Amino acid sequence: MITKSKIYWKYCFYLLLAFFWLLYPGQQSLLKKAGLNYSAFIQNQPIKFKPEALPRLTDEIEKPLVFAQSYLVIDLSSFTPILSYRPVQKMYPASLVKLATAIVSYQHYPLEQQLTVNKVINEELKMGLVKNERISALNLLYGILVYSANDAAYTLAENYPGGVEPFVQEMNLLAKRLEMKNTHFTNPIGFDSPKQYTTAFDLALLSREFINNQVLLNIASTKSITVSDADFEHFHYLNSINELLGEIPHLGGLKTGTTDNAGQNLISFYRLNKKPLLLIVLKSEDRFVDTRALIDYLNSNLVFIEIT
């Protein structure tokens, strides 16, 4: 007697044979057509490429009067130098090294992670951290990028696994990855050392990496802010020491640095007709005057040529 179960499995067997016959390689017309006309199964789309507009100086006015011992203006979109003077001369970076400190810290610490102040740094600019204070990595980043606080930079470094020395090693690995061939770091703060040096061009590479991080760029473009520790016991008012921030439209930071040996340093992120530019001024007697002179010159004399 034939049961329903046997009939069911009989139909399944015939169905399996039918699928095998339809799909057996080299026998069916559908598969033969696919083999002979494989392009029918590929959707061709034209590649759309729009080259970046390139910067060009019109040379209608005299070059800007800049007294810095090294400077560089670069178009970030194409990484084309626009103006430069001794861009590969090795210089003391001062607190410009805090851009590297910020990048390494951001890559290692979650922003909300609470770090402990184990050693208080009282030299020069500081946000007023106290021993054993617990404060978030985010608020320490505000400390180094808004007010260039040395105690904040040291706290970020000393909480790194192994302490300050491995942290500085990571800074140098970052420089190597970015191909900053004439740069070496010895401390995360920017204290002068014969073995701590950089160039305007290398700083452009570092700044490009920094600017690509929207969180860090937003922090560096903050005019003033008050941050607190984890327990809301200690509050720290931070006001940017960059006089141009908030005074020049379309300027968004980036970092200041000053020591006796380095002179006055300043890196500025500036948009001209929505085109991102980077201005680096090293060893200036007045970094803000020099940067204003460069910006005024660019506003009057820089155009972008579309490539067709």
From TrEMBL:
Residues 62-284 form the Peptidase S11 D-alanyl-D-alanine carboxypeptidase A N-terminal domain. Substrate binds at K255. Keywords: Cell shape, Cell wall biogenesis/degradation, Hydrolase, Membrane, Peptidoglycan synthesis, Signal, Transmembrane, Transmembrane helix. The keyword Ribosomal protein does not apply. One of its GO terms (molecular function) is serine-type D-Ala-D-Ala carboxypeptidase activity. The active site is at S95, K98, S148. One of its GO terms (biological process) is peptidoglycan biosynthetic process. The chain crosses the membrane at residues 7-24. Pfam families: Peptidase_S11. The keyword Hydrolase applies. InterPro entries: Beta-lactam/transpept-like, Peptidase_S11, Peptidase_S11_N. Belongs to the peptidase S11 family. This is Peptidase S11 D-alanyl-D-alanine carboxypeptidase A N-terminal domain-containing protein. It comes from Candidatus Roizmanbacteria bacterium RIFOXYA1_FULL_41_12.
